[in-house]
């Protein structure tokens, strides 16, 4: 007897990993686009406003994880993408490269697996595009050069993000078949029974079909395993590639905040602090994605050693102190002078940072 096969649906953990990866990729791309704009002469204030608007959709989706359903998160996040695309296109000329973010909004809705939501967001995007074209006829608050640079940077980043969503959200199909052993053959009587012979022949046919289905299921399982390994490799490579620009962004922001090349005004000082904190948070997200990829591939190695928990806690408090100060929260390390433990230093540091980050939220 053969139990029917059915398409495989990604588990909530797999879908969460896909969405987290696409959000992390966009945060990195948006940061690169903002730095590129500053390099080409876009005023810091204008670039900071566009950057904050650009990172708002993935940050909202990330912070809403665990508070509501994935379908609701996808609906809210894709709607914010449409609003950002409308404002961006209206600010840069209506038909500029910023219109690609309407496609991003549809791609985010498509990745949720809901045909209804995808259709609604597509219609909403069309209305937003028309509104952007009409609004841009009255002029833009950006200078033509600045609008062109911003549109090219964020437009190219949007194209890359659409490709990343298409890769990470590709459905993986599996087929599982269950074969129930046939009953022991009945000893035939010397006189052949035509009805029994016909039933036996039908049972043999079903058994052959069941064995063929089992072989096909095994082959499809191997294919799905290979696709899963490719996706894990993609996550790991993407996380490593994001580390270098992130370190540069956090470092330059820290230099600007500390006035290495001269003092800044209070407003610019606040902007530099926000960029520094955003880079730190993005670094934590990239580390989480990389750890998930290693766990999924079974290559997450624990290297225990004698470490100082007090030093680890001090580093975590120092790392998160700026974000806490901005929220008017005072972080203070209280405890014995030195506490040691036999543990993995990287894992303990990650746990401490996540605990403080969650507490500040």
Q: What descriptors fit this protein?
A:
361 residues; mainly alpha; 2 domains; two-stranded antiparallel ribbon; 2 strands
What is this entry, summarized?
The protein has 361 residues and is an all-alpha fold.
The termini sit apart by 54 Å
* Chain oligomer state: single chain
Strand count: 2
What share of the residues does DSSP label as strand, in percent?
A: under 5%
Which percent range fits the helix content?
over 70%
Mean pLDDT: 75
Structural class given helices, strands, pairing?
A: mainly alpha
Rounded to an integer in angstroms, the radius of gyration calculated over CA atoms is 27 Å
Q: From N to C, what is the helix and strand string? A: HHHHHHHHEHEH
Verbal overview:
This protein is mainly alpha-helical and 361 residues long. It folds into two domains: 12-175 and 207-300, no CATH class; 303-361, no CATH class. The protein is built from ten helices and two strands; from the N terminus they run H-H-H-H-H-H-H-H-E-H-E-H. It has a two-stranded antiparallel sheet with strand order 1-2. Helix 2 (44-63) runs antiparallel to helix 3 and helix 9 runs parallel beside helix 10 (345-360). It starts with 11 loop residues before the first helix and ends with a helix.
């Amino acid at each position: 007897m053969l139990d029917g096969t059915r398409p495989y649906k990604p588990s909530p953990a797999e879908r969460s990993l896909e969405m987290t990866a696409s959000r992390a990729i966009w945060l990195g791309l948006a940061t690169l686009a903002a730095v590129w704009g500053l390099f080409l002469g876009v005023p810091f204030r204008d670039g900071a406003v566009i950057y904050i608007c650009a990172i708002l959709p993935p940050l909202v989706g990330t912070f809403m994880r665990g508070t509501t359903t994935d379908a609701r998160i996808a609906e809210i996040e894709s709607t914010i993408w449409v609003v950002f695309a409308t404002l961006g296109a209206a600010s840069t000329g209506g038909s500029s490269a910023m219109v690609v973010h309407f496609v991003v909004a549809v791609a985010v809705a498509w990745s949720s697996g809901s045909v209804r939501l995808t259709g609604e967001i597509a219609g909403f995007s069309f209305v937003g595009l028309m509104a952007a074209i009409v609004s841009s006829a009255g002029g833009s608050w950006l200078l033509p050069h600045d609008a062109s640079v911003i549109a090219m940077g964020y437009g190219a980043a949007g194209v890359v993000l659409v490709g990343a969503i298409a890769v990470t959200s590709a459905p993986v199909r599996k087929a599982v078949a269950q074969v129930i052993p046939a009953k022991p053959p009945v000893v035939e009587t010397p006189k052949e029974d035509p009805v029994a012979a016909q039933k036996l022949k039908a049972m043999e046919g079903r058994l052959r079909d069941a064995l063929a289905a089992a072989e096909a299921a095994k082959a499809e399982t191997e294919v799905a395993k290979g696709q899963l390994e490719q996706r894990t490799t993609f996550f790991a490579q993407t996380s490593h590639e994001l580390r270098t620009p992130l370190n540069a962004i956090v470092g330059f922001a820290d230099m600007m905040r500390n006035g290495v090349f001269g003092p800044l005004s209070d407003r610019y000082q606040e902007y530099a602090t926000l960029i520094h904190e955003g880079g730190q948070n993005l670094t934590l997200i990239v580390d989480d994605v990389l750890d998930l990829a290693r766990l999924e591939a079974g290559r997450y190695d624990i290297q225990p050693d004698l470490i100082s928990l007090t030093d680890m806690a001090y580093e975590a408090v120092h790392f998160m102190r700026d974000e806490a100060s901005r929220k008017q929260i005072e972080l203070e390390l209280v405890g014995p002078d030195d506490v040691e433990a036999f543990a993995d230093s990287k894992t303990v540091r990650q746990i401490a940072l996540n605990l403080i980050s969650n507490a500040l939220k």
